[in-house]
Amino acid sequence: MNEDINFWTYSDDIPDGVGFNQFSVTHILWLVIIIATAFIMAVIYKKSDNKIHAIILKMLGSILLFLIVIRIIILSLEGNMSKYELPLHLCSIAGMVCFIHSFFKNDFWGQVLYSLCLPGTILALVFPNWAYYPAFNFITFHGFLFHGGIVIYIVCGLVGGDIRPSIYNMWKAVVFLIVVVPPVYTVDKLLRVNYMFLKYPSKESPLELLERNMGASGYLVGYALLTILVIILINVLYGVINGFKRRTDKYQRNR
What we know:
Elements: H1 25-47, H2 50-77, H3 90-104, H4 107-126, H5 138-160, H6 171-191, H7 207-254
Helix pairs in contact: 1-5, 2-3, 2-5, 3-4, 3-5, 4-5, 4-6, 4-7
């Protein structure tokens, strides 16, 4: 690795070929750590009472907000804060939604977290667009800690019943998109950026298949249709799993 690269080296100074790379040992190790932590937190959350639930969710929500703020501060101090680092990607918005939900427990935010933020964050972890950074780098650590924190928050919310997905309420996630996407797309156009990947897909992600098959002009339409499909599928999946669990619990009670 270039001796000029350190923990704080930013995108513009990262040469080709020094990244941790998708599906490398570093990447898989981070995923394993996140999955293990989510499992442990889910067990702790399940065994805790409502008072502890509130404390855990507020703690996780506050940590996520802190990670957003500290990234902006550090990039600013290093002279690397720019129009490309505004917290306007879906996952950045998800961190703020987690913070809001932790205090208000509103079902609207719960539906948004499950239907949109969970699949979006999982995709970001599986196909990280920061994979060109070295393993030992602030952006690498921040990327996995932040996205992992979102998954852990949502898993805890699901386990404790603080987030209750419903196919009848998935329209709330669609409303959220209708409100959020137009201003973000406007920012993308005005600043020539690509927040929420509304103009073109993240490299080495499944979204590239959309652009490849539908072209640049059809990409956004395909993206919208895919998002709606994911919302439907993930809510149907939850309904099936939850229904099976209820029937199993009823059977065991009647034995």
